[in-house]
Write a structure and sequence with these properties.
Layout: E1 2-8, E2 12-13, H1 16-34, E3 41-47, E4 53-55, E5 59-61, E6 65-66, E7 75-78, E8 81-82, H2 85-91, H3 94-104, E9 108-111, H4 116-121, E10 129-130, H5 137-143, E11 148-149, E12 155-157, E13 161-164, H6 170-181, H7 184-193, H8 218-229, H9 237-243, H10 248-259, H11 263-281, H12 286-292, H13 298-309, H14 313-320
Parallel strand pairs: 1-3, 1-7, 3-6, 7-9, 9-13, 10-11
Antiparallel strand pairs: 2-8, 4-5, 12-13
Length: 327
């Protein structure tokens, strides 16, 4: 029987990230016993101490066991903990040495959404791939520059060190782990029972691009503002460098350092974000939207759009436009 440890952290925890895995592994036990088989999982809530944690002012979660009492586990699940991440890490640091010890003994570790900040704080992600909520990309890179953040992914698996993308995508990681621990049939059964879309691996379509502006390079900020105000224009890197009187090579270096995007990537992302909004709220056809954001080559527009969102413009409209929904 595999022992599943769901952490009960201090702070503003997303309660669904505690309840979700608790439901999944216990429900699978129920599926198994209903079919005459033995349960596979022992699920416990694990705290740094025995104190009941209060979330959202009125949800109370009491650990079943503390890290000092639990000597051996097979899977540690780190829920999403919100707030100032520096404070979150500090208030939960008692977990880190225990997580590392358990990993040395063979335990796997999974972070859900921004629980990745706690997982990265253990040091277990050094040089490894990790995902988290797309909105926390810049903060994660700032705190953990040696971790390979792949913010477009929903699931990463670094030999039993897992992470998931943002918010409810943690269900996809749980289904992935469930399939590894049991079978494809069991993962499909659970996904159908709870109506969860299985085999979803990218969160690109959910990302809302907001340019990184929390830097102090004023010419780069002005370049960003110029790009954002002139979405319909064809803007070259040479034009931007000349406009702000900076050599091209130096401009590209400064822009990348300040925004974590090359100028070309930034221009593309701004244009595609504008195209997404147009596809969501207007009845313009794809060609009209394409021209509105400064593209004249249909193939190039579709290629960039799919690279950034994971969907074609038509598929994106069909999924997110109110006009395409029939009840």
């Amino acid at each position: 029987m595999k022992h599943i440890s769901i952490l009960v952290p201090t702070g503003a925890v997303a309660l669904s990230c505690i309840e979700g895995p608790f439901i999944l592994f216990n429900k699978v036990n129920e599926f198994l016993t209903d079919s005459g088989k033995k349960p596979l999982f022992q699920v416990q809530l694990v705290g740094a101490n025995s104190e009941t944690q209060v979330y959202d002012r009125f949800f109370k979660v009491t650990p079943d066991v503390t890290i000092n009492q639990l000597q051996k586990t097979d899977l540690i699940i780190i829920p999403a903990v919100n707030g100032n991440m520096t404070d979150v890490i500090e208030s939960n640091k008692k977990f880190f040495s225990w997580i590392n010890k358990q990993h040395e003994q063979g335990a796997e570790v999974a972070s859900l959404c921004v629980g990745a900040f706690l997982l990265a704080s253990t040091g277990l992600l050094e040089g490894k791939k990790c995902s988290t909520h797309w909105s926390m990309t810049e903060k994660f890179k700032e705190l953990f520059p040696t971790v390979d953040l792949v913010s477009d992914k929903i699931i990463t698996d670094e030999k039993g060190i897992y992470s998931s993308g943002g918010a409810n995508s943690f269900w996809n990681l749980l289904l992935y782990i469930l399939e590894k621990y049991t079978s494809r049939e069991m993962a499909v059964l659970f996904s159908k029972y709870y109506e969860i879309e299985i085999d979803r691996f990218s969160q690109s379509q959910f990302i809302i691009f907001n340019g990184q502006n929390s830097h102090n390079d004023e010419p780069v900020k002005k370049a960003q503002a110029f790009i954002e105000k002139n979405v319909a224009d064809r803007i070259s890197v040479e034009d931007l460098a000349a406009k702000f009187a900076i050599g091209r090579r130096n401009f590209e270096r400064r822009f990348k350092k300040a925004t974590n995007n090359t100028p070309i990537e930034y221009i593309q992302r701004v244009k595609i974000e504008a195209a997404k909004k147009s596809l969501e709220v207007t009845r313009k056809n794809v060609s009209e939207v394409m021209y509105d954001v400064g593209y004249s080559d249909t193939k190039a527009f579709r290629t960039v759009f799919k690279k950034i969102t994971g969907l074609s413009p038509v598929d994106y409209r069909n999924k997110y436009s109110r006009a395409s929904i029939s009840l």
